[in-house]
Amino acid sequence: MIEPRTPLPSGVPPARSEEGRAPLPVTPGTGRFLVLAGVFLCAACGLVYELELVALASYLIGDSVTQASVVLSVMVFAMGIGSLAAKRLRMRAAAGFGAVEAALALVGGCSAMALYAAFAWTGDWGGSWAGGSRYLLVGFSLAIGVLIGAEVPLLMVLIQRIRRQDPGGAVADLFAADYVGALVGGLAFPFLLLPMLGQLTGALLTGAVNALAGGALVLGLFRRDLTRRGRWTLLVANLLVLGLLASAAALVDDFERAARQAMYGNDVRVAVQTGAQEIVLTGGKHAPLDLFLDGRLRVSGRDERRYHEGLVRPAMDGPHARVLVLGGGDGLAAREVLRFPGVRRVDIVDIDPGVVRLARNDPALSALNGHVYGDPRVRTTTADAFRWLRGPHTPYDVVVSDLPDPGITASTKLYSQEFYGLVARVLAPDGRLAVHAGSLSSRPRVFWTVETTLRAAGLGTVPYWVGTGAPPAPGGRGHGAWDRLTGIADGPDRTLDGTRAPGDWGFLLAGLRPPLAEVVPWEQERAAERSRMTGLAPSTLVHPRYAD
């Protein structure tokens, strides 16, 4: 006679099978597929978090190589810690995996907003690694890495929970799904999430997908492994995470506006994210116009005329019928070129059509550049300058290199020996090249490395300095008071430090035949020569030498 089964008290998990496992609500084949699908989605989300941290850190702090190295190395290290920590959760793998995914969704989804907020409201715009944004970056890298590292050991237990198989085969299945998911996440970030949603909303959406994938897998497939209290706790935790991410997404536009005001002031007129960079334009009516590219002050209405005159005018002393401007999509270098009679054609090659469009259509910026894009002599090309120079071109009398600072990793190749070799190919025999090479007061090594690189490419050079305040001191050391004003600033490419310092620019005039030093004012050349540094090696594509 079979005795009736006594009902289980509330909160007690159901009886185990003869193998010590609660039965699954689906067949083993379906369960295995669902686990691998969860691995795929979680891996895609994890890689998006990594790429989002690298991209945001490169934008906020600069030097993408350093930021990528820090984020990735810290995360890989933390993944090892997470794998070891997950050993303690193996007996409760389902509950542990659900908790890990909920935490990862919250931390990873909110990481971009937290970093951006710290950057905007603490005023940490560069400098040493003591900045708060950098500590926060390392902290998020550690936390996300630990949580990602805990996933695979727990998933290994769960997939074996469905059907016992050879450990090597189970690991192969998990890693195959993991790597394919990483591929999809790695491609989705630059081609889908970043251009369509931006960094903040993209990270929040990724967190929501992560929470849904982890919660659905545990509550749907392994719910019988949890007590009733455990199921409700995990459900409430995931709902709270989703609610927080949804609330943040609803407020993200207001957050961005407030953060921009904290960074740029209250007179932000234009803020747009192009495929190449973020463009912000401030002032223009009752305040000087400022143009920021990826958070760096590229054009300041207070001193841009002195900068562009210093860059362009010495190179225009000689034949100048055909002029090439590399960079300079704002049209301000072209404005100075067109002041000289005899100019028949000006070609502007800029990588970002958004800058050109803004310089053409924005009333304040187009007025500042003298409406150069309405001049029929001006032609524009959207292209990477390095790639464009590799094609066949009619020689130019003057080439103006109005490019971002060489200390920025993305610009390093545009200050390489190979790049200047390509420039030399498009120069007429008596042509001149004008190069903005950074600040002599704060970064003399960068400046003289550019000069060494030009000479290595077979070009003669004349250095000169334009600025206010004390000129560079002998031996490459700037004047103390000047250094306190500028910090790491270097003219249009300087980052904000809470105040707007006067301009300090180092330029180089170069040519296939040594340019006449007489075209550069003697005191400007002498001021540059006082800081000369010797024994420097040229910068090449395979050995860049501009890192601060």
Automatic annotation (TrEMBL):
Residues 243-487 form the PABS domain. The chain crosses the membrane at residues 33-61, 67-86, 98-123, 135-159, 171-194, 200-222, 234-252. S-methyl-5'-thioadenosine binds at Q277, D350, D384, A385. It is a multi-pass membrane protein. GO terms for biological process: spermidine biosynthetic process. SUPFAM superfamilies: MFS general substrate transporter, S-adenosyl-L-methionine-dependent methyltransferases. Residues 1-12 have a biased composition (Pro residues). GO terms for cellular component: plasma membrane. InterPro entries: MFS_trans_sf, PABS, PABS_CS, SAM-dependent_MTases_sf, Spermi_synthase. Pathway: Amine and polyamine biosynthesis; spermidine biosynthesis; spermidine from putrescine: step 1/1. The active site is at D402 (proton acceptor). It catalyses: S-adenosyl 3-(methylsulfanyl)propylamine + putrescine = S-methyl-5'-thioadenosine + spermidine + H(+). Its EC number is 2.5.1.16. Residues 1-22 are annotated as: Disordered. Keywords: Cell membrane, Membrane, Polyamine biosynthesis, Spermidine biosynthesis, Transferase, Transmembrane, Transmembrane helix. One of its GO terms (molecular function) is thermospermine synthase activity. Spermidine binds at H308, D330. Pfam families: Spermine_synth. Its main location: membrane. It is found in: Cell membrane. Belongs to the spermidine/spermine synthase family. Catalyzes the irreversible transfer of a propylamine group from the amino donor S-adenosylmethioninamine (decarboxy-AdoMet) to putrescine (1,4-diaminobutane) to yield spermidine. Homodimer or homotetramer. This is Polyamine aminopropyltransferase. The lineage of its organism: Bacteria, Bacillati, Actinomycetota, Actinomycetes, Kitasatosporales. The gene is speE.
